[in-house]
Design brief:
This protein is mainly β and 492 residues long. Helix content is 4%, strand content 51%. It has one helix at residues 3-24, and strands at residues 40-51, 54-62, 72-78, 84-86, 104-113, 116-126, 131-140, 147-148, 155-156, 166-174, 177-186, 189-197, 204-211, 219-228, 231-239, 247-254, 259-267, 275-281, 287-292, 313-314, 321-325, 331-335, 343-354, 360-361, 368-375, 383-391, 394-401, 406-410, 421-425, 433-441, 444-449, 454-459, 468-474, 478-488. Strand 7 (131-140) and strand 8 form a beta hairpin.
Length: 492
């Protein structure tokens, strides 16, 4: 093993970042408050953890260009989840188990052990027999400078699991024992494999924690497993699972057998651009998840991975969300309360009657937060629509169809690049209000509705800051009890 080679590769990548970051930072499509790389490509969130008084975000990263290629781990820290300090890269390909131009240091997670920050990641290489994926360890005394374990890899694909379908380890600790699950494929079906260890270095297979029978696809990418309330949650992004990008299952877990018993399933986000979410525990006990604001299945919608690559970067994270267990064992996902600290210049109106054919102008621009509370008991409209980012022929339309019980997010005329209409159910049975919460940034829109159970995240690449926004009713009137909007402070 060559510690010197990893150091050289990190220094080489850092020189590339430092040479480009100022000009890349001036890009018109750069986000204002969503996490993104200084330069180059970003995909999965990795190693999310609160360690030594700061939040740490690691991330899949190609520092050289705005395309996927040999994977490094980027690294940044924050005290509030929105204002970030970029640190030196944590991992770079350097060993025979992770040093390939179409491989590298793939996704993984972090945990504290003996006062050190440990990372477990998937090393991916190709030695002439196809791609091989194995689980590897790196560790750090200060949480900044990492060293790869000399005994790597610590886990290899078990018998019957193809070598290129064994990845994305997620760590946790319970009762003095360390556990990890990895996504796998066996017999064409997706699995989450469970292992345990006493020292983070020597691992023992426990059981197949859960598996697909076909309904959840052939591979679970970035599986995550954690407790919320008195239940456990298995979260994953299914390959071959249809249009699903991020799924959760809630149920019970037996540590004595290592078996998970799911009862309820649901979608974390119904949009095109929410993938590979990873969870971590905040110091106050909240379970927070962060996702990648894109998804592999939708890449063909773009030319060359999307337009931001022309500015020298590609990829951002969705807003951090708090996971909350509901009485019926479903989950809701609330934007973290730290986002409220970014609000500026509040506009508020109460008791607004929205007549058919009388669209109401909202705050202009494309960087804002908006909330609406619509009184259904006094509204007769069949549909309520948000028409956003209107500029010439361009517009993005989000429609709440009360009769069909459906939300549609139509970005087909948003910017000249985007395509597709995302859909979500809208369960308003027995409800007096329709709640709508929107976060808009330069290259993304995130919608939360139905008490944060039906959420849609989609990228929209319209950089014009003078665009207009409206709300409109169809087939009757809508009674808006309260509407609020804020400008959002720039943090990135």
């Amino acid at each position: 093993m060559s510690k010197e080679l990893m150091r050289q590769n990190i220094e080489k990548a850092q020189r590339e970042i430092d040479a480009k970051k100022e000009i890349v930072g001036q890009g018109r499509m750069r986000q204002h408050y969503h996490f993104m790389p200084q330069t180059g490509w970003l995909n999965d969130p990795n190693g999310l953890i609160y360690f030594k008084g700061k939040y740490h975000f690691f991330y899949q990263h190609n520092p050289y260009e705005g395309f996927w290629s040999s994977m490094h781990w980027g690294h940044a820290v924050s005290e509030d989840l929105f204002h970030w300090e970029y640190l030196p890269l944590a991992l770079a390909p350097s060993e025979n188990y992770d040093n390939h131009h179409q491989g590298g240091c793939f996704s993984g997670s972090a945990i504290e052990h003996d006062g050190k920050l440990f990372l477990m990641y998937t090393g991916t290489t190709n030695n002439g027999c196809g791609f091989e994926q194995s689980q590897c360890i790196a560790y750090s005394e200060d949480g900044i400078h990492f060293e790869k374990y000399e005994g790597n890899p610590v886990l290899k694909a078990p018998e019957g699991v193809p070598g290129n379908f064994f990845r994305d380890p997620k760590l946790w600790k319970h009762g003095g024992t360390y556990y990890v699950i990895c996504g796998a494929n066996k017999g064409g079906m997706a699995q989450a494999l469970l292992y345990k260890s006493e020292d983070m270095l020597n691992w023992e297979f426990v059981n197949v924690l859960a598996e697909s029978r076909g309904e959840w696809g052939y591979m679970w990418e970035c599986p995550d497993f954690f407790p919320v309330g008195d239940k456990y949650v298995l979260m994953f992004s299914p390959m071959g699972g249809g249009e699903r990008t991020s799924v959760y299952l809630t149920g019970d877990f037996d540590y004595s057998t290592g078996k998970f018993y799911p009862v309820v399933s649901g979608e974390i986000d119904w949009g095109f651009d929410y993938y590979a979410p990873q969870s971590f525990e905040a110091p106050d006990g909240r379970r927070i998840i962060v996702g990648w604001a894109n998804a592999w299945d939708w890449m063909p919608f773009w030319k060359d991975w999307g337009p931001t690559y022309r500015e020298g970067w590609c990829g951002s994270f969705n807003l951090p969300r708090e996971v909350v267990l509901c009485e019926d064992q479903t989950l809701k996902f609330l934007p973290v309360r730290e986002a409220e600290e970014l609000r500026q210049s509040c506009k508020e109106r109460n008791e607004v009657i929205l007549g058919e054919g009388e669209p109401l102008a909202l705050r202009q621009g494309n960087v804002f937060e908006m909330k609406f509370r619509i009184r259904l008991t006094e509204s007769t409209a069949r549909k309520i629509s948000l028409v956003l980012r209107v500029s010439g022929e361009m517009k993005t339309e989000i429609t709440f169809d009360i009769e069909k019980a459906e939300i549609t997010f139509d970005r087909s005329r948003s910017d000249g690049w985007s395509k597709g209409v995302a859909r979500s159910p809208l369960n308003l049975m027995g409800k007096e209000y329709l709640d709508i919460h929107i976060f808009s940034d330069k290259s993304s829109l995130e919608l939360f509705s139905n008490d944060y159970k039906n959420n849609i995240s989609c990228n929209v690449f319209l950089p014009q800051e003078d665009c207009k926004n409206y709300i409109a009713a169809t087939g009757g009137r809508a009674v808006i009890e309260k509407m609020e909007s804020w400008e959002i402070a720039k943090t990135m």
